[in-house]
Amino acid sequence: MNSRERILGRVRRALADVPADGGSYEEAVPRDYLREHGKRTVEETVDLLAENLADYRAIVHRTDAADLPLLITRLLAAHGSAEVLVPPELPASWMAAADQVRVHDRAELTPQRMDRVGSVVTGCAVAIAETGTLVLDGSPDQGRRRISLIPDHHICVVRVPSQVVASVPQALERLDPTRPLTWISGPSATSDIELDRVEGVHGPRTLEVILLDD
């Protein structure tokens, strides 16, 4: 028996209890797991998101639409960024007060060129409170996956409460699995055998999350 036959055999055994009545796999397999752990108000869910983001060493800010442009400008200046990478349809008002040079995400941008850009500003698709996770799906206000992985400083704007859910199952219901999903839980980090933490290895060293009251 070769590897292919072993794998197909496992698939057949896994599907052995699925009735052959034409019903879909989703209908045949029970989905009775918890959709969230405990009941929370909207405010409590947002607070949990902020707490878990901070636990992953993300820097969390809260603001409204009127103060958002000044906050983004202040964060870019504090990081010392002369240039900022922006996705194609980032709301213009978000960057209205920034005087940094805008580098627009284009196909011809090389990784080396993007590596010289200090910061990137994006929106997000959904934020998960229980895990402190941001999910980007490549929408026009988020850009391609690479722009959130190469610059050293990522500012991600989350609309609150419309983009915040409690749990992973609730997030999956909102996401299109055919899109390029990037799941972010804090700044990029790894550790060696001595458990010494090193940040910025596989993505931004600094993640700042703005919870935007919408």
Automatic annotation (TrEMBL):
Transmembrane segments: none annotated. It holds the Pfam family LUD_dom. It comes from the Bacteria. Residues 110-212 form the LUD domain. Signal peptide: none annotated. This is L-lactate dehydrogenase complex protein LldG.
